[in-house]
Amino acid sequence: MHSWGTRLLAAATTAAVLLVAACAAASALDAFHVPSVEAQAHVTKINRFHKQINGNDKVTLTFSLSANLESLFTWNTKQVFAFVTAEYETAKNSLNQVSLWDNIIPDKDQANVQVEVKSKYPLIDQGTSLRGKKVQLVLHWHIMPNAGAMIRGKMPLSEFTLPDTYTS
Amino acid sequence: MGFIGDQVESIRSMQVRQVLTQIISLGMIVTSALIIWKGLMVATGSESPVVVVLSGSMEPGFKRGDILFLHMSQDPIRTGEIVVFNIDGREIPIVHRVIKVHERQESGEVDILTKGDNNFGDDRLLYAQGQLWLQKHHIMGRAVGYLPYVGWVTIVMTEKPIIKYLLIGALGLLVITSKE
Amino acid sequence: MDWQGQKSAEMLMQVLLVASAVAAFLVGYAMADFQLMLLVYAGGVVLTALVTVPNWPFFNRHPLKWLDAAEADRHPRPQISSAPATTGGKKKTGKNK
């Protein structure tokens, strides 16, 4: 503390440590935040269902989604990445998760999502087991903070059954 | 006399024993940094517990210069997670989000497809020729924590090595001349 | 900066920084605004640096009272002679060669 240089260094070091501590505290508070998400989704139409040349089943479908994700936002939230997956079990795989739609929500004002999703990403299986398959739609979210730990969550939505035959 | 003058003066008045003490304290700083890094490796189970984001493919979530803390647990990988993976024949690891998971019935092996949030298409173009899926051995860790901007230090230092040497020199000088 | 000044500067630096960090966190949490927290904290850090880094006269109110040069002449420091005879039977003699 005898010269201004050492004092400046000491101040800068202490300030940086405290800044990290403040960010950690903000992130720790997020862990106690209990969100209440409300969401519904329904498949409205199977647009196309066929077998690709490489032998995999491919479905393009339309579904309506209404989700209120406002409660996910806290003061330490930079953005929420929300997406809907189709999840199902086949003889080959114990779990298949395929993203059908995703969206980056940068702000709480845009967290009330009402969309008609017309096949943003197709549902492609590993193999040919989609005919007559029961598929679960699941809403996932991934909260990305200004600083600190990232939080994931999910919520099962509706189920639907694919037709027994290809459409083309 | 200013700050620099003080430092010069303190170098001039040093003795052998003092020089040796300072060298040891310099060594302590280097080794303790190493210990912290290796300790983190053990705690997180990932060979590089902290990575710096180098590209804008995950914007606006992660920008160039942000740092991510990785963790490598035994939990199965699921969609939505942000993983760091290494492609055979590529040196720089990539940080992207998992969008598809197919987990085998008996062996529990997984096929994973990734995509950058800011990219239009999935990552098959980035993978090795003919590679369709990532397997577990490609994954270096999953991102669990985030701090903005801190990684700029390393980006600047790798791109402008002069700054690195200046910084190391200045720090070394400071350690050697400090009297504790 | 004198000894008392250095001590109070360090003390003041830590108290001010912790106080501004706590204040910034509370303000940020109350207003639910992360950026506001960073701004308040940055303000606190600049203020701390302004108060504790420069050598203000405030830190120089306890100068050391050195002995007068004349006073020192009147009480000379005891001289250590290197001659073995005057140091008596102490074992230091071996080292004085």
Explain what this protein looks like in three dimensions:
The complex is a heterotrimer of chains A (168), B (180) and C (97). Chain A folds into two domains: 1-32; 36-161, Sandwich (Immunoglobulin-like). In chain A, 16% of the residues lie in helices and 51% in strands. Chain A contains one helix and nine strands; from the N terminus they run H-E-E-E-E-E-E-E-E-E. Chain A has one helix at 4-30; strands at 38-51, 57-68, 77-88, 93-105, 112-118, 123-124, 134-145, 148-149, 151-161. In chain A, strand 3 and strand 4 form a beta hairpin. The mean pLDDT of chain A is 90. Chain B contains four helices and six strands; from the N terminus they run H-H-E-E-E-E-E-E-H-H. In chain B, strand 4 (94-104) and strand 5 (110-115) form a beta hairpin. In chain B, helix 1 crosses helix 4 (161-177), helix 2 (16-44) crosses helix 4 (161-177) and helix 3 (152-159) packs across helix 4. In chain B, 26% of the residues are buried. The mean pLDDT of chain B is 86. Chain C is mainly α and 97 residues long. Chain C has a domain at 1-58. Chain C has three helices and no strands. Chain C starts with a helix and ends in a 23-residue tail after the last helix. The model of chain C is unreliable at 86-97 (pLDDT under 50).
Topology of this protein?
The complex is a heterotrimer of chains A (168), B (180) and C (97).
Chain A: H1 4-30, E1 38-51, E2 57-68, E3 77-88, E4 93-105, E5 112-118, E6 123-124, E7 134-145, E8 148-149, E9 151-161
Chain B: H1 3-12, H2 16-44, E1 50-52, E2 67-71, E3 82-85, E4 94-104, E5 110-115, E6 139-147, H3 152-159, H4 161-177
Antiparallel strand pairs in B: 1-2, 2-6, 3-4, 3-6, 4-5
Helix pairs in contact in B: 1-4, 2-4, 3-4
Chain C: H1 3-31, H2 34-52, H3 69-74
